[in-house]
Write a structure and sequence with these properties.
Oligomer: single chain
Number of strands: 11
Distance between the termini: 70 Å
Largest sheet: 3 strands, antiparallel
Structural class: alpha+beta
Order of helices and strands: HEHEHEHEEHEEHEHEHEHEHHHHHH
Low-confidence stretches: 1-29
Shape: globular
Radius of gyration: 26 Å
Helix content: 40-55%
Length: 338
Amino acid sequence: MKRNIALFLSAAMLMGLLTACGDKENNDPSTEPVKIVVTDNGWDSQKVHNEIARLVVEHAYTGYTFETSTASSSMNWLALIKGDVDLDIESWTDNVASYPDDVARGDIVDVGVLVPDSAQGLYVPRYVVEGDPERNIAPMAPDLKTVEDLKKYADVFPDDEDPTMGRIYGCLPGWMSDEILFRKYEYYGLDEMYTYNRLGSEGVLFASLASAYNKGEPWVGYCYEPTVIAGQLDLILLDDAPFDPDLYMDGKCAFPSQELKIVSGKYFAEKAPELLSFFQNYQTGSEAISAALAHIDATGATHAEAAVWFLREYDALIDNWLPAENAKALRDYLATLD
């Protein structure tokens, strides 16, 4: 009897060990997909880049999932340093005061360059300065050349809610460039004669510009390039004092023409080494992304649909980004889509 009990206990222990081993194998983290998280700071060109990257990460490679972190650019930057976010695609690093120190400490890593140069600042439609005879629009502010010149023309850009003040359409809340632009607004004394109007999204900001432009009305506010709106409309970037890195963060000079980069947190290279080479090679160019944004504007496509359109329209780029077998896997997937 005792021998039977001993055999039973031994068998039970063996089954327990086998079950435990089986559970360990089934729950082995190495068999689970690796989650890649990238920033979504709210602007359209970055959203298109993100959706292109999603297609590559999830369908040119195996073992990865792709997510976006929707937050302000400043909050996402902190998450990138902490390691909660892996990548910032189309990163405007010159707008980040801590960027040089973050790189020096190794918390932020430069991965690649998307666009070699860009522009941002305060823009007006060209007809505001030069007029437009074809549309029977006379010049409204013929001597307007610089940001400081706006002090002479507050009455040209009236605020609908306070006619005694002009209106400047500022950058979006939470964007790092908004902090710099608002300091510029104060530095030049524009706060004494203009309200600084922050709108809730890039779409609403650019819709206000497009509406004014179509009506031939005055408008002054933040814009940047490359964007579809800058490509569609004839705009003038107002001059400012030459860029000086010592004055820039205080808004006392022009925004720099800067490289738009891909940056990562310090853990990404070890987390996904095979993806690192893709992002190092990932370049699109401002004209190509502007074309994708124009496709969205013309067709009402989503950012995800525009990414599929882009990869088909600019198929040759895939070979620049990926090894042959990964390029084939991506093209095979695209062929399954309508």
